[in-house]
Write a structure and sequence with these properties.
This protein is mainly alpha-helical and 164 residues long. The chain has helices at 2-19, 53-71, 75-98, 103-124, 127-141; strands at 21-28, 36-43. It has five helices and two strands; from the N terminus they run αββαααα. It is globular, with a radius of gyration of 22 Å. Residues 1-20 form the signal peptide. Residues 27-53, 130-164 are annotated as: Disordered.
């Protein structure tokens, strides 16, 4: 009796663990069209360690403080941006823990989370702040500007004055 009861509890525990899921919702607002919503459900793996909430908050707060200084955020914007950053960092930690061995899915999730974050920030920031944010983001990510890495104009762009 005890053995069958123990076996039943293991089966139930496995069934409950197998049904646990995490859902990540993203919403992207293109400039000229309606917003696009995506919903991705991630299975919860029992062997995946939960990210430390203190570490997540620390990273989100550091991002927020950097943005507060660089974009001159108002106190109301700081709290909204902190919530956006906290959600994004938490979702990225969850995705990276789930997809450690599946880089294509991890990259796709990172792009979805990043697009969702940018769309949410666009709703909170002023147009000037958002433009400054995008410029800093492009610099950080190494997106080429109008000049190539060697000082030449990027292909397809006209050369600036004095270089013709």
């Amino acid at each position: 009796m005890k053995t069958s009861l123990l076996a039943l509890s293991f089966v139930l525990a496995a069934a409950v663990a197998g049904q646990a899921q995490t859902t990540i919702k993203t919403k992207v607002k293109p400039a000229n069209g309606p917003s696009e919503k995506t919903k991705t459900t991630l299975p919860t793996a029992s062997a995946t360690p939960a990210p430390s909430s203190a570490r997540i908050e620390e990273r989100a707060n550091a991002l927020t403080e950097n943005m507060r200084q660089g974009l001159a955020l108002t106190p109301q914007q700081v709290e909204k941006v902190r919530q956006i950053n906290l959600t994004s960092v938490r979702n990225m930690e969850t995705a990276s823990n789930r997809y450690k061995a599946d880089l294509p899915n991890l990259n796709r999730m990172a792009q979805d989370i990043g697009a969702s974050r940018v769309a949410a920030l666009k709703d909170v920031l002023t147009p000037e702040q958002f433009n400054r944010y995008q410029q800093k983001r492009e610099q950080k990510m190494g997106v080429p500007s109008t000049r190539g890495a060697q000082g030449n104009a990027a292909p397809g762009l006209p050369a600036s004055r004095g270089e013709e």
